[in-house]
Design a protein that fits this description.
The chain has 5 helices and 8 strands. It is of the alpha+beta class and about 190 residues long. Strands 1, 2, 3, 4, 5, 6, 7 and 8 form an 8-stranded mixed sheet that branches. Helix 1 links the parallel strand 1 and strand 2.
């Protein structure tokens, strides 16, 4: 098994969580514009046998934002919304693709300033049970206590998948790809 990721911070986190895999740096993989499971399945199929890939989404008021790195500029519009951080690890063993999902819930905030070193959307997410952001927890050395990535990793280590699909049953993607509409983020009324 090997893990493919283009993010050195993720590689360090996985090592810290005990995922003793050959970690292969790679470029960002093309991602389908589908459900979080579809994204992970198609990435794992594209990389091939032995691969473990990750897909991360935030779910804002029940709506997955699968293209989050391009939507961060719109987070202010959803300040105070319920949010879930979901990480899906997909392992392709050549016959099937197993999905291991970790998630945590919280509230979306929009700080006045964000540290340049802040990771992803960590500065915008306060997990349930805490009064500080994931970024502040990282600085305090406590982010692993509420890490969706760590939860997904533990399921992979325990070999307890949330879902499995046969590789041969994964049809070629004919829909849209993430990034095709980066200038357009669907705006919807706030639900309170």
């Amino acid at each position: 098994m090997f893990l493919v990721t283009s993010n050195p911070r993720k590689r360090r986190e996985y090592a810290r969580f005990g995922l003793d895999l050959d970690i292969r740096p790679g470029e960002d993989l093309p991602e389908v514009h589908g459900t979080p499971a579809e994204v992970a399945i198609h990435k794992a199929k594209a990389v091939g046998t032995g691969a473990v890939v990750e897909d991360t989404v935030i779910i804002v008021d029940g709506h997955p934002w699968v293209d989050i790195k391009w939507a961060k500029q719109h987070l202010k519009e959803f300040e105070g919304s319920r949010v879930e951080w979901q990480v899906t690890l997909a392992h392709n063993d050549g016959e099937k693709i197993d999905l291991f999902v970790g998630s945590i819930s919280g509230v979306l905030v929009y700080p006045e300033t964000v540290r340049p070193e802040s990771f992803g959307f960590d500065a915008y997410f306060i997990p349930d049970g805490f009064d500080c952001t994931l970024d502040e927890l990282e600085l305090a050395g406590r982010k692993d206590e509420v890490s969706a990535r760590k939860l997904a990793t533990q399921k992979l280590l325990d070999r307890t998948p949330d879902q499995s699909v046969e590789v041969g049953a994964v049809e070629e993607w004919t829909g849209e790809w993430q990034g095709q509409h980066r200038a357009q983020v669907i705006k919807r009324p706030r639900m309170r």
